[in-house]
Design brief:
Elements (H helix, E strand, L loop, with lengths): L1 H27 L9 E5 L18 E7 L4 E5 L5 E5 L3 E2 L2
Antiparallel strand pairs: 1-2, 1-5, 2-3, 3-4
Keywords: Membrane, Phosphoprotein, SH3 domain
InterPro entries: FYB1/2-like (IPR043443), hSH3 (IPR029294), SH3-like_dom_sf (IPR036028)
Function: Adapter protein that plays a role in T-cell receptor (TCR)-mediated activation of signaling pathways. Required for T-cell activation and integrin-mediated T-cell adhesion in response to TCR stimulation.
Protein backbone atom coordinates (compact mmCIF):
# COMPACT_ATOMS: atom_id res chain seq x y z
CA UNK A 1 0.00 0.00 0.00
CA UNK A 2 2.76 2.46 0.80
CA UNK A 3 4.11 2.11 -2.74
CA UNK A 4 0.89 3.59 -4.11
CA UNK A 5 1.04 6.51 -1.68
CA UNK A 6 4.55 7.42 -2.82
CA UNK A 7 3.57 7.16 -6.45
CA UNK A 8 0.50 9.33 -5.85
CA UNK A 9 2.53 12.02 -4.06
CA UNK A 10 5.07 12.08 -6.91
CA UNK A 11 2.23 12.55 -9.41
CA UNK A 12 0.88 15.44 -7.36
CA UNK A 13 4.30 17.00 -7.15
CA UNK A 14 4.88 16.76 -10.88
CA UNK A 15 1.48 18.35 -11.56
CA UNK A 16 2.43 21.21 -9.24
CA UNK A 17 5.76 21.58 -11.06
CA UNK A 18 3.96 21.60 -14.42
CA UNK A 19 1.63 24.33 -13.12
CA UNK A 20 4.60 26.39 -11.89
CA UNK A 21 6.39 25.97 -15.23
CA UNK A 22 3.27 27.07 -17.12
CA UNK A 23 2.94 30.12 -14.86
CA UNK A 24 6.64 30.89 -15.36
CA UNK A 25 6.43 30.65 -19.16
CA UNK A 26 3.35 32.91 -19.28
CA UNK A 27 4.57 35.50 -16.77
CA UNK A 28 8.15 35.76 -18.01
CA UNK A 29 7.18 35.20 -21.69
CA UNK A 30 9.84 32.48 -21.72
CA UNK A 31 9.72 30.33 -24.84
CA UNK A 32 13.24 28.89 -24.73
CA UNK A 33 14.06 25.42 -23.47
CA UNK A 34 14.56 25.37 -19.70
CA UNK A 35 18.17 24.38 -19.00
CA UNK A 36 20.00 24.57 -15.69
CA UNK A 37 23.07 26.78 -16.13
CA UNK A 38 24.39 26.43 -12.59
CA UNK A 39 23.39 25.32 -9.09
CA UNK A 40 23.78 27.95 -6.38
CA UNK A 41 23.14 28.36 -2.67
CA UNK A 42 21.20 31.24 -1.16
CA UNK A 43 23.41 33.15 1.30
CA UNK A 44 20.55 34.80 3.18
CA UNK A 45 16.79 34.61 3.53
CA UNK A 46 14.89 37.03 1.33
CA UNK A 47 11.09 37.31 1.15
CA UNK A 48 9.51 38.09 -2.21
CA UNK A 49 8.07 41.54 -2.76
CA UNK A 50 6.40 40.62 -6.07
CA UNK A 51 5.04 37.36 -7.49
CA UNK A 52 7.90 37.28 -10.01
CA UNK A 53 10.49 37.31 -7.20
CA UNK A 54 11.48 33.96 -5.74
CA UNK A 55 11.50 33.90 -1.92
CA UNK A 56 14.62 32.12 -0.68
CA UNK A 57 15.89 30.88 2.67
CA UNK A 58 19.53 30.83 3.72
CA UNK A 59 21.26 27.65 2.58
CA UNK A 60 18.58 26.75 0.02
CA UNK A 61 19.79 25.13 -3.22
CA UNK A 62 18.60 26.82 -6.41
CA UNK A 63 18.99 26.08 -10.11
CA UNK A 64 19.97 29.07 -12.25
CA UNK A 65 17.83 28.96 -15.39
CA UNK A 66 18.73 32.22 -17.14
CA UNK A 67 20.73 35.42 -16.68
CA UNK A 68 19.01 38.80 -17.06
CA UNK A 69 20.46 42.16 -18.07
CA UNK A 70 20.30 43.55 -14.55
CA UNK A 71 21.72 42.16 -11.31
CA UNK A 72 19.15 39.36 -11.04
CA UNK A 73 19.00 35.81 -12.36
CA UNK A 74 16.02 33.56 -12.98
CA UNK A 75 16.14 30.63 -10.57
CA UNK A 76 14.08 27.55 -9.75
CA UNK A 77 13.84 26.11 -6.25
CA UNK A 78 13.48 22.41 -5.39
CA UNK A 79 9.68 22.79 -5.26
CA UNK A 80 9.68 23.84 -8.92
CA UNK A 81 8.84 27.51 -8.36
CA UNK A 82 10.57 30.07 -10.59
CA UNK A 83 11.46 33.70 -10.03
CA UNK A 84 14.06 36.43 -9.95
CA UNK A 85 16.80 36.37 -7.31
CA UNK A 86 19.41 39.09 -6.90
CA UNK A 87 22.96 37.90 -7.59
CA UNK A 88 24.15 39.48 -4.32
CA UNK A 89 22.05 36.95 -2.36
CA UNK A 90 23.64 33.91 -4.04
CA UNK A 91 26.83 31.91 -3.56
CA UNK A 92 28.08 30.49 -6.88
CA UNK A 93 30.68 28.14 -5.38
Amino acid sequence: RSIFKVKKSNEGKSKKMEKEEKFFRETFMYDKEINVINRVTAECSVPSKRRVDLPVTAGEQLDVIDVTEGNAVICRNLEGRYGYVLVEHLNFR
